[in-house]
Design a protein that fits this description.
Keywords: Magnesium, Metal-binding, Nucleotide-binding, Nucleotidyltransferase, RNA-binding, Transferase, tRNA processing. This protein has 460 residues and is α+β, with helices and mostly antiparallel strands. It contains 22 helices and 13 strands. The longest helix is centred in the last third of the chain and has 26 residues.
Length: 460
Amino acid sequence: MNYVKKFIYDLKKIVGDMGSEVYLVGGYIRDKLMNAKTEPRDADFIINGDIHKFVSELEKVGYKFFPIKENIGIYRCILNGNTIDISPMKGDSIEKDLEVRDFTVNAVAMRLIDNKIVDPFYGRRALKSRILKSVSDKSLEEDPVRILRGIRFYIKCGMHFNLETEKQIENISGRIMEVPKERVFKELMLIIKDDKLGLAFEIMDNYGILKNIIPYIDELKTIGKCKYHTEDVFTHMNLTYGVFKDILRGKIKLKGLNLNIFDHKIGEFSLQEYLSLACFLHDIGKYEAYKNENNKISFYGHDIMGASICERFCNDMKFPKKAEKYIENIVRGHMYPLGLFKKDIFHNKKAVYSFFYNYDVYVEGILTTAFCDNYATRMNLNRQNEKQRFKVFIEYMLKEYETYCKMNEDKLLNGEDIIKILGRKGPVVKSALRDIHMLRYLGKISNRVEAIEYLKSQSF
């Protein structure tokens, strides 16, 4: 069932009975004008009349609304994942309402009673030309976060700003962080979500926006070239982000990587978006870690410094705490797999186990980021053999982690067993469980009897 169409049908009947004007506006109209076959999941309605009476009438036919901005009369209804918003008209006409919107492509309305299109700012012409033009000189100035919304349309719909709007962006991009950080966070993550080709950070940087959101952007462009990299750090971060986007769309494949794990949501966004951001931020600590001693460049500790920067950034931007911790751990651990690779740990499963144990639920994200990092590096150095060897290594690690997880789920002994055998409680139980899990992973214990014999032979 198309829930939005059903709602429009029911709303038309109520409009006819009440005699008030109702307009369908915003993204629904824009997307339909761009592609008539598309089925938008969300719809916004403007009502010139008693909005409380409209809500009451809609609830009589089964729709449940709740206020999202009750002081100005904005109500929302969720229909099987579809979002319906209704708002009172701003000003004394639909034209007055549309003139306070962001871009002309979003300032098009359709009168519901007769399907008449209202387009005072030539939004349809802009859509046809794929042009993003601010409705007025004040559109972006009054709400700088609209710049990020424009960037999202740029990426998602293949649009471009006109020259006048570009100048407005240039003039006010420095004010982007004056709005509530939660709004900047949401728009940034929506950009990343809609960015299928890995161009988001480059585009935001081109318009001078990124440096006002993420720290050290300009500084990272001045360092990075060394025996491991032919490009500056900012370029490398962009490339790494792009590699992960290529993985998500199937252009690059990693055997053993289940992409479905990145569908897990933290708040409104999934691990796909958070890991995308982590891939970009992975080397953000290099500016603070940079050293040049006797023409020998190093970035020792940039992973730890980067994790600290990410923690501050995510906290300042009001990320969900779990998302903040996820990004922080990915950035902190992104060098760990390379260290294991250089030590040739194919014959040292204890080192592999330590990595899995220390990073646990972040392992797959870290392994993926490490691969993207290495792949981006070798894109320019063109050491094909090492790139392929590292890919084989990461795929080996993904398979080993799967084994590790299966053993962790199917334990030989549980906590109660340990307490009965040792006659003790407390931290010793956790330590014993870890020892048994590790020895089983290393192949030194294979069944419950051997696990019990091991415990009885130890002095915990």
